[in-house]
Design brief:
Residues 34-53 bind DNA. It comes from Nakamurella alba. Keywords: DNA-binding, Transcription, Transcription regulation. Pfam families: TetR_C_1 (PF02909), TetR_N (PF00440). This is TetR family transcriptional regulator. The protein contains eleven helices and no strands. It is mostly helical and 229 residues long. Among the domains are: 68-152 and 199-228, Tetracycline Repressor, domain 2; 157-194, no CATH class. Helix 1 crosses helix 2, helix 7 crosses helix 8 (133-143) and helix 8 (133-143) runs antiparallel to helix 11.
């Protein structure tokens, strides 16, 4: 039995149940998480879990809360921009440790105390830096999913079997590139310049910094949204 499996002699609590569910999702994917599988992992009958977890939806929400609990607070004395950046990148590291978390976070319709606490902390970093509630409101909208450490893309090439794959033969490669260049010259130029691959972490941080710099400029200019004028 692995380290993450709990002994039947250990009392089951909500914290233990949620951590066991997170461990199971990390090992086998979130689709493997069920009340029956979790009960077996904890060494109890499924009905015993309902004292701690109401249902599958409550379980998934609690798993998200457990991941949020891993987010690190910014360093002492960090200015508002560094504080927001640190919180967002800490969330990104947590999502990287738990790849299943992204889809579960996106599926949540209920805001738990942990979810609200994270949103409050990020908003508080803006407000603590002197930004107005008005500008902070719009900045949070602009952050969107980035506040949870990921940014939805229009296409996920890594999971797309139809994504462009260069053939092994050099002559065939050149023929394909020539066809692409004649039909889609602009995206082909970008793809060739980037080597055909993107650094997801760099792109995420670049966009985050771009956004925060823009918010900073608006703050310095005393920007007010049209509805407040």
């Amino acid at each position: 039995m692995g380290r993450s499996h709990l002994s039947a002699r250990e009392p089951v609590s909500r914290v233990r149940a949620l951590q066991a569910a997170v461990d199971l999702a990390d090992e086998e994917g979130v689709d493997a998480v069920s009340m029956r599988r979790l009960a077996a992992r904890l060494g109890v009958v499924p009905m015993a879990l309902y004292k701690h977890v109401v249902n599958k939806d409550d379980l998934l929400g609690g798993m998200v809360d457990t991941v949020i609990g891993e987010y690190a607070a910014p360093g002492v004395g960090a200015d508002w921009k560094a504080a927001v950046r640190d919180r967002v990148l800490s969330a990104r590291k947590a999502v990287a440790r738990h790849p299943w978390a992204r889809s579960v976070i996106e599926s949540r319709s209920t805001r738990t105390a942990a979810v609200l606490g994270h949103l409050d902390a990020v908003s508080g970093a803006f407000l603590g830096g002197g930004l107005s509630p008005d500008l902070t409101h719009h900045a949070m909208h602009a952050l969107g999913h980035r506040v949870w450490g990921f940014s939805p893309e229009a296409f996920d090439d890594s999971a797309d079997p139809g994504a462009l794959r260069l053939p092994a033969d050099p002559d065939e490669q050149q023929q394909l590139v020539d066809r692409m260049r004649s039909t889609y010259p602009h995206i082909t130029a970008i793809a060739l310049d980037s080597g055909g691959a993107c650094d997801a972490d760099f792109e995420f941080e670049w966009a985050l910094d771009l956004l925060l710099d823009a918010v900073g400029r608006l703050h310095e200019a005393g920007w007010v949204s049209p509805r407040r004028r």
